[in-house]
Amino acid sequence: MSKRFYQMNLKKLFCFLTLLAIASGIRAQNPQQADPVKMETSHDFGVIRHGRPVTYDFVVVNTGKVPLTLNNVTASCGCTTPQWSPEPVPAGGKTTITVGYNAANEGPFEKSVTLQYNDGQSKTIFIKGKVDKAQPPAPLNQSVLLLKQTL
Predict the structure, then answer these.
(1) Residue 99: Cβ within 10 Å count
(2) Does 7 score more than 60 pLDDT?
(3) Which residues lie below 8 Å from residue 28, measured CB to CB, with a gap of 6+?
């Protein structure tokens, strides 16, 4: 085989690889394949009282061009409860994921909730805070007992 034959095939291979790289770049920039979920990814409850459940609404915005379907939303433990709608969110639409924490244990906490959407994509959001010690009941007011006896 001649040197010219190899040079021609090398040029064809180079052109093919260049076109392949360009096509891959275009596919990577396709907005339909970009992450269609826009939302805050964490919430800090701060200090909350022991035994007082708290909730927070994470607003999910579909920035994609096709409907967004939340396939599953799961919490990292039983003390965290997500509530969500399985109804598709139209392009440009919004939905809410309400995440609750039961505050049964004292001390700091950080929990995660994983969203699975559009059959294969996922995102993790976090809640954190500190559960304050349980407050002792107020002491019995003797004046109120005296008033009750006189009535």
Answers:
(1) 24
(2) no
(3) none
